[in-house]
């Protein structure tokens, strides 16, 4: 995966076409999965508050040997949080230990 295929977005940013989804993985499993995925060249991680593993994703990213700027992180607003999207995003950022998300699905 030396040159992953990317999609160019309208704003000029690019998004990898292939990413690691961590649905149904525990926080512990996520740490190992992300570590291995980054080792083989993945640069996109897809999680969600509803998966209850954003803290594990955050730990894995914090310990990663890949710079944050090289990664594309997606998370999602859960149905129960549609009346409080800002607070939900801030909760996700805190759990992920990130300053920003590349894609926030609503």
Automatic annotation (TrEMBL):
InterPro entries registered for this protein in UniProt: AKR, Aldo/ket_reductase_CS, NAD(P)_OxRdtase_dom_sf, NADP_OxRdtase_dom
Gene3D superfamilies in the record: NADP-dependent oxidoreductase domain (3.20.20.100)
Domain NADP-dependent oxidoreductase residues, every copy: 18-106
Catalytic activity: hydroxyacetone + NADP(+) = methylglyoxal + NADPH + H(+)
GO terms for MF: oxidoreductase activity, acting on the CH-OH group of donors, NAD or NADP as acceptor
A Pfam cross-reference name: Aldo_ket_red
Keyword entries, A-Z: NADP, Oxidoreductase
Family: Belongs to the aldo/keto reductase family.
Protein name as catalogued: NADP-dependent oxidoreductase domain-containing protein
